[in-house]
Amino acid sequence: MKKIRILAVLLVITMAGSGCSPAKPYKETQFLMDTVIEITAYGPNAGEAVKDAFAEFKRIQKLSDKFDPSSQVSQINRLAGMGKMAVDPDVALMIDRSAKMSQLSAGKFDITIGALTGLWGVGQKGEYIPAKQDISQVLPLVDYRQIEVDSANNNVSLSKPGMALDLGGIAKRYAIEKALEKLHSHSIRSALINAGGDISVIGNKPDGTPWRIGLQHPRKEEGLLARITLDKWNTVETSGDYQRYFIKEGVRYAHILDPHTGIQPSEIASVTVISKDNSADIRSSAVFVLGINKGLELLAQFPGTEAIIVATDGRIIVTPGLSNSVEIEK
After folding, report:
1. Which of 150, 159, 182, 289 could form a disulfide with 108 if both were Cys (CB 3.0 to 4.6 A apart)?
2. Helix H or strand E encompassing 289
3. DSSP secondary structure of 168-193
4. How far apart are CA 229 and CA 309, in angstroms?
5. pTM above threshold 0.85
6. Across the beta sheet with 85-86, what order do the strands follow?
7. Tens digit of pLDDT for each residue in 66-110?
């Protein structure tokens, strides 16, 4: 029986080109939002910029952490079915964006999944598998259409008692976006944020070459799946069944759940979505839950957004736009 292992969907950074960087970076690493976050920046204000960027991660974590009873998300959950709550504009925006992704994915991405994730608690309760009847009782509480958001006044409410928000599918990416704003405000022109495998870069490396990253193989702990050159994109997001999971009686139980069934999807091992300026605003977890065919259909709605999908049967699907920028490891 395998113990729960918490693995970052770590995209190992590899340097493109053979020359040395002409500038020394300021680099800092912290453990936030349940993952290791590393920020590397170049420039005269790099140190201050990185510290301000980390402050944004901490701020968004404080607002969105469902395990923190003082967070606004926890407060919204406690008020479920009882009335609206005034929230920070960033919380309202995260919820509003999530609702749009829920619509696009036919509800396969749903932040009202909190009651379900609490029931399973992968990484929190150990190797615990809830009974089917318990899952069935909770499923009616998962419905993004039962969220009411008043964006003008930043008010949020959940219509049914027992409903619970879980912003785990969007909060980290949103925090990266806010951190990037801080780096830009300090005139940083070259930087990389690696938040547990979710990556965003600013510009190229100081020597002018594109950032190049290595994507971890979902079934080889120390192995790479592919190397990607970010010559056209600056945002990478990965979801997989090898981050928080346990294996019991030969079955893998991961932290990503299908909001419609209450159990783990089984077709995909990992999905990496690659985009420019986060403009697609598409979540890799939505593709993961949808499965290969429907996931690719969703991706097709966002021209310029590409993906690498690893199926649980070993197949590797690379969207055509990546053909000249990705090298699959043998």
Report:
1. 289
2. helix 284-290
3. GGTHHHHHHHHHHHHHHHTT--EEEE
4. 17
5. yes
6. 85-86, 155-158, 147-150
7. 999 999 999 999 999 999 999 999 999 999 999 999 999 999 999
